[in-house]
Amino acid sequence: MRRLALLLFLALPAAAAGAASLQISPVSLLLRGEQSATALQLRNAGEAPIFGQVRVFTWDQKGSEDVLQPTQDVAASPPLVQVGPGETQLIRLIRLGPAAQEERTYRVLIDEITREGEPQAAGVDFRLRYSIPLFMRPAGEPQPPRLAWRLFRSEAGWMLSIANSGGMHAQIGAMTMAAPGAAAHEISKGLFGYVLPGRTREWLLPLPAATPLAAEVQVEAQVNGKPASLTVPVTR
């Protein structure tokens, strides 16, 4: 299975080996119906022990921001880990409350930490944080995402807004967009972001602010792993 370390926060640059040594699988977690637990695997591909803390947060969205709050819905076991060189550690994510009646969304944060008494290198201490999405589903499949897309210009530049009125999250992947008769702009080669159910998410696009766009643009994107082709209105 392909392993990928998802880097959410990087304090300051440090040794590249440290950044690549912790491998996490899978990169997205799902708890279905009455399922009481799921698991992820940590593997230390480096030459030094890794000490970590595992916590679970509810995950919401407001505008262009992800909002995380501590939760008692799901517990990580064990919450503190030591993974030796070449070793693997299994982390169980255990549902503590009742089964979900609608899709619930969480983030599992894994922080590298300094062990008490561990010598530190001179200069700034360096630690990584990894963020893994966890989706808790009700029994049966929820309503699929229903997305409304639009482009608009802000003071910062061109913005993409996606509203999801469906019952399930939407993962937006590789994306291009093009005005009629113009060359396509590559927006993302891989994961672009998520839109949670009942939420609207906004992103500043990697387009020059002066880029001319017509009243509509053609967007090609991956949505939950499937190709989507759509015409998106441009508002001023």
TrEMBL record:
One of its GO terms (biological process) is cell wall organization. GO terms for cellular component: outer membrane-bounded periplasmic space. Residues 1-19 form the signal peptide. The keyword Amino-acid biosynthesis does not apply. It comes from the Bacteria. Residues 22-140 form the Pili assembly chaperone N-terminal domain. Keywords: Signal. Gene3D superfamilies: Immunoglobulins. InterPro entries: Ig-like_fold (IPR013783), PapD-like_sf (IPR008962), Periplasmic_pilus_chap (IPR050643), Pili_assmbl_chaperone_N (IPR016147). PANTHER family: PILUS ASSEMBLY CHAPERONE, SLR1668 PROTEIN. This is Fimbria/pilus periplasmic chaperone.
